[in-house]
Amino acid sequence: MRPDTLGRTAIAVLPGLSLCVVVTAAASLVQAAEERLVHHPYVEALVIAILAGIAIRSVWEPGPRWRIGIAFGAKQLLEVAVMLLGASISLAALVASGPALLAGIVATVVIALVASYSIGRLLGLPARMSILIACGNAICGNSAIAAVAPVIGASGDDVASSIAFTAILGVLVVLGLPLLIPLLGTTPTEYGVLAGLTVYAVPQVLAATVPVSLVSTQVGTLVKLVRVLMLGPVVLGLSLLAPRLRDESGAPAAEGHSGARKKLGFFKLVPWFILGFLALATARSLGLVPDAALAPLTRIAGILTVIAMAALGLGVDVRVVARVGGRVTLAVVASLAVLLLVSIGLVRGLGIS
User: Fold this and answer.
1) Is 119 in contact with 315 (CB distance < 8 Å)?
2) Residue 230 near residue 112 (C-beta atoms within 8 A)
3) What is the C-alpha to C-alpha distance for residues 307 and 17, in angstroms, rounded to an integer?
């Protein structure tokens, strides 16, 4: 790109992107206040940012001057954030978890994915929305939804709906999961596995386990991290299915479309940021990514993700979300119930103590 073109693009992007950054800063301040008051962010900045963006969009529709930067934040910045997440993935956690538990985590994620997607489709939700809910429920909540959205071409409305309802239930799980300890008679280790399998985000796992015991926190964090490792294969698989999703979206086929699929090259089927994600994950596993670089890369990815969520919120039409709200809520609740039952079955079946 020529320097003058790059300069014009930067100027065009600046207003909308600056607005996203302001929303992100406000959301981060709210999360910081939560951490000071209750020591854990029960509602993360990512969720606050998208809800704040939706609130702003409900009273003010950004004009053309703002839309370019908002669209840039929702797409390009999100893709960069997904790529950088690869640097935090290491095969060491996979090996350390042990074969039985590892197989159980993989099975739980697969069952939850299939069940959640099926529930969404049975309730009449679109394929993309069902996939977002399934990935958020089965893998890692908001982060999985944010990572999968650009791969399957999900709209901002779909992402906002999925994240909003998943976030609300995620907080309820954190608050309600400890109640199962006396009901099920779980040991600290069993509870840690259960928390790692059912709670959506890593910070929420800490919030759900730290008040119980150190063992629960350690086990829950490990299980959660191994569960997050499933995001890579799932995202890669979905990237290969993306053309079919476009075919099934109901959009009219373009001229010559029947032969277009045969002409799609590898880089069309697998987006650049997925290749970057896999490359960084491989480099991390081989020890090529210095430990000193992990914290900055993870931090940058987190900030970019929150900015992208603010951008998605600013592009959401609340009326669209309201039309699917009831079905989405039911799909998320039913999916979470399935995940919880499967997780309890795994804990009991493996005889973890």
Assistant:
1) no
2) no
3) 8
Q: How far is CA 281 from CA 104, 232, 253, in A?
A: 22, 9, 37
- Decide: 300 and 84 in contact? Cβ < 8 Å: yes
- Token pair of 101, please? 């538990």
């596993």: which residue's tokens? 285
Residue 302 vs residues 4, 191, 223: alpha-carbon distances, Å: 31, 28, 21
Render pLDDT for 16-73 as a digit per residue (tens, 0 to 9): 999 999 999 999 999 999 888 887 777 778 878 888 998 898 889 888 899 999 989 9
The encoded tokens of residue 97 equal 């978890």
What's the first-to-final CA gap in the chain, in angstroms? Answer: 59
Q: How many helices (DSSP H) and strands (DSSP E) are in the chain?
A: 19, 0
| Joined tokens for residue 12 | 């065009």
Where do we find the tokens 């997607």? Answer: 117
Q: Which DSSP category does 286 fall into?
A: T
Selection from 333, 339, 311, 345 nearest residue 17 by Cα: 311
- Residues 109 and 117 sit within 8 Å (Cβ to Cβ): no
CA dihedral 136, 140, 142, 148 (to 10 degrees): -60
Contact yes or no for 351/101 (Cβ under 8 A): no
Q: pTM score, two decimals?
A: 0.67
Q: pLDDT tens for residues 272-296?
A: 877 888 788 888 888 888 888 888 9
Amino acid identity of residue 154, one-letter, is: A
